[in-house]
Sequence to fold (178 residues):
Amino acid sequence: MIKAVRSFFIAIDIDDEEIIGRVRAFQKKLMNQNFAEIQSNERLHITLNFLGKLQWKTINEIRVKLRKIHMNSFDTMLRGVKYFPSAKLPIRILWVSVESVGIRNLMEKVCAATLDRYAEEIPHVTIARVRKIVDVTRLKKFIGNYKNYFFGKFHVNCFSLKANVGGKYVDIERYSLL
Fold:
């Protein structure tokens, strides 16, 4: 059993090198603009459900339920950069929108298996966290230039239960789709 787990979540990894390259290029341009202090993500993924910090007994119960999810694999597209605000910053989380009926269906099944624990409402890929904004107007304009940018399309054939251990994401279990 893994010790010092910060939190658990269920996600789809993005392993497509072209998509990763496009996201990394966007992140590099964003950081080079110097209108915000940015922390970029190590591993790109679509969070289906954030579980928070749970006891291993509860995690093992969820694992059994996740194994019972049966649905076909599907294609999904990543398009457009958007952002979530926070109480302190008008732009806090930068993310790419996920376009897919399959994602919505899988999210519903995952949420049912986890009793809707912190269900994600908008399927997305977090690509950066803003720590401090120097020029909010320029940052919004820069993001606006990418509002319809096509990052790519990929096939989803599995999802994973993950643990955040010291800032590193560790797979606990993978679940295949049909």
